[in-house]
Design brief:
This protein folds into 2 domains: about 5-230, Sandwich (Jelly Rolls), CATH 2.60.120.650; about 230-280, no CATH class. It is built from 7 helices and 12 strands. The protein has helices at about 30-40, 60-65, 70-75, 95-110, 165-175, 230-245, 260-275; strands spanning about 5, 15-20, 45-50, 80-85, 120-125, 130-135, 140-150, 150-155, 190-195, 200-205, 210-215, 220-230. The strands form 2 sheets. It has an 8-stranded antiparallel sheet. It has a 4-stranded antiparallel sheet with strand order 6-11-8-9, with no helix packed on it. Helix 5 crosses helix 6 (about 230-245) and helix 6 crosses helix 7 (about 260-275). The longest helix is centred in the C-terminal third of the chain and has 18 residues, at about 230-245.
Amino acid sequence: MKWLNRVNNNFDASKKSTFSHDLQNHPLMQFDELKKLALRHPTVKFHSANIPRTQSLETVVKEAPSNMNLADALNNIETSGTFVFIQNIQNDPIYGKFVNEILDEIENDVHKNQSNMRKRQAWVFITSPGGTTPYHRDQESAHYFHIKGKKTFWLWDAKDRSVVSQKENEFFHGVYGLSKTRYDETYMSKASEYAINPGDGIFFPYTAPHMVENGKEEFSISFSVTHMTDEDFAIRRVNKINQLLRKFGLSPKDQGESGLIDNLKLAFHWVLRTTLSPFGNNWKNA
């Protein structure tokens, strides 16, 4: 079975693109089934959906908690003002096969120009009317399937240094943190904007900044499958080395400026990862 239809058949995993799908009609994507998933799943986060674009996702659960429990928030999703994030549903015994079939199809396309697709994961987002997913970046590439309701989606280029500075990029990759990734109104003119409805899909490349605002008429459901490739890991690793060099007062060349220097940094990263990972530090799976 074919799960998605690309607008451009020349899929490139390094470039944003759109696609269509029919998952809004799939039994497992219906709200009642997703509610059951959320209530039995061990990794679910939820918080207020009424947050500013500048809110950090690292601290949102603490700084903007929901005023009710998960079951009540879902049962009253039209009025509860809640954002529900169901994580790693590829591990669920009911959803796992379905998720992996979609990822297998995507992997065939990804391998046209990138290699060794890893860290295959899937997520569900359920958002009350008018809710905001603030400006942020993820540590993966993503295929974002919209299932229910209407949303406006903004997507930026992670290589645009007027939006993602070299220092912010190095910090993001170096400590896997979002504290320096904050929205600025000047970014809006540089975004690709999408008005999305059920059946619409967006692919956003590795770590591309994005932001989502829900329509005010009804709650929404979106489903995202994510991955990393060898090429993505190389980007992460060069930036992690850059962040380390910057701590020593150096000003390293940006990732992508010099293939030779990037390769030297990758070799240095391999030495550090091999030497230090047995001691349990953050180089272990970097």
